[in-house]
Amino acid sequence: MDKSAMLELDNQLCFALYACAREVTKLYRPFLDELGLTYTQYVTLLALWEKDEVPVKELGRRLYLDSGTLTPLLKKLEAMGLLRRERDPQDERSVIVRLTGDGRALKERATDIPERVFCQTSLTPDGIVALREQLRKLTAEVHTQTCDPG
């Protein structure tokens, strides 16, 4: 492919991933609206339902979010009564995030969201698993490596 064609929008990996992510996120919107959550709030709760009582830094690493994005998000979820942020008594510099009873209870209302979303795609269950694994692998590679195009 010549260098000019490499600059065409449809030839950009970043744009294909961006457009796909936006469209998939849109599939979640009606289901998350029922819960009063944004997509970013939802994935934050998913991480906490999986592992509760985690330091903010660990949660940020898990979600690939920096503190400038994560802090206001956690404040909003705290104002909604879904979690609490508390200083770690062993290390005052660390803040621990804990789900509240309401935050844990919301998990039950969210259990059917993945299936409802996947039903709106043309992917098979095996196709979803394969695509998810390929995206995880790409994310890990991009996160840990740089390359010299020269």
TrEMBL record:
Record-linked SMART domains: HTH_MARR
Instruction: List the residue ranges forming a coiled coil, or say none.
Output: none
Pfam families attached here? Staph_reg_Sar_Rot
Domain (HTH marR-type) spans: 10-140
Per UniProt, the keywords (alphabetical) are: Cytoplasm, DNA-binding, Transcription, Transcription regulation
Q: Where is it localised?
A: Cytoplasm
Q: Which domain of life is it from?
A: Bacteria
Q: Does the keyword Transcription regulation apply?
A: yes
**InterPro entries, from UniProt?**
HTH_MarR-typ, MarR/SlyA-like, Transc_reg_Sar_Rot_HTH, WH-like_DNA-bd_sf, WH_DNA-bd_sf
Which species is this record about?
Answer: Paenibacillus artemisiicola
This protein's name = MarR family transcriptional regulator
PANTHER family tied to this protein? ORGANIC HYDROPEROXIDE RESISTANCE TRANSCRIPTIONAL REGULATOR (PTHR33164:SF5), TRANSCRIPTIONAL REGULATOR, MARR FAMILY (PTHR33164)
